[in-house]
Specification:
With 363 residues, this protein is mainly beta. It has 2 domains: 166 residues, Thiol Ester Dehydrase, Chain A; 116 residues, Roll (Thiol Ester Dehydrase, Chain A). The protein has 6 helices and 18 strands. Strand 11 and strand 12 form a beta hairpin. The longest helix has 18 residues. The N and C termini lie far apart (49 Å).
Amino acid sequence: MASIAASYLIPRTRRDLTWGRNSSVVIATAGGSRSALRSVDLVNGKKVNGVHIPGEKKGSLFMEEPHVEGNKPLHDCLLGRFVEENFVYGQTFIIRSYEIGPDKTATMETLMNLLQETALNHVTCSGLAGNDFGATREMSLRKLIWVVTRVHVQVQRYSCWGDVVEIDTWVDAAGKNGMRRDWIIRDYHTREIITRATSTWVIMNRETRRLSKIPDQVREELTPFYLNRIAIPTDKDDSDKIDKLTDETADRIRSGLAPRWNDMDANQHVNNVKYIGWILESVPINVLEDYDLTSMTLEYRRECRQSNLLESLTNTTTAAAASAAIEEPPKNNLQYTHLLRMQPNKAEIVRARTQWNSKPKRY
């Protein structure tokens, strides 16, 4: 498979079209003619101080004409590329103002959304995408979809508004009937790894909502892209079992959480990223204000629909914080166990474990 260098078209007005990164600014006149004004380096429409992106030519114009449906493949509109003999797919993002929290840094939900976006674009640009959300062609023919069973994210540092990050992702087999997907997030300028993540996925029948074995035809699609590499070393991965919380063991319970229609994804269930916000609803406010979420492990148990009413449970597993004699929690390695469940019948949706460190002083 040839290496793909894709660009992103950002129309500003009818008369002004700004092209993808490492491209030229082109003005479309009323008569339809175009003139290249100057060569600039752009990422999602933002100038990036002339930083060269490895494997691409500076100042190159990736798309000679505006994208017209049917004339260009979909990946021509995506800002991403394959590296390492097409085993790794990378995509670049700018942290937007609406993706930051009260402390002006990206949130865990933002990171998870970017990881998910990169994964979906990986499938699309590989040429495997079928008609369903993230499914391959053979999966679509068999009415199969991917569902995530586990995600573990480790954050070294959260990016700020306007920062540029680069995400690399790849896949590998996980047992006989699963797939593992890993990610690494780097600071675009310094190349520092700021986040690592790993996940496990299985196949579900879209109509029966039952798990399925991976058909041989689907396995044949995926195998050429498998890369035997892990983003998080085994000795640092959070693989311990997450204990189930109950009304008796939980410190805090937040009830009456209701999914909205906009929380649903294209597979007709609540998007897995939405669970994070509900899980954090039962975390003490002083922890949310004064601590950074440095590690999060999610174990998905069942689907959630728009009609379900949810409860969020949290319990501290840090001995010092659990002691009533301690007025303030420790400054580092504060750990919580969480459960998101159906409110009427107490059926489990997600178990989670989080670790927190005190936020550095920002002047």
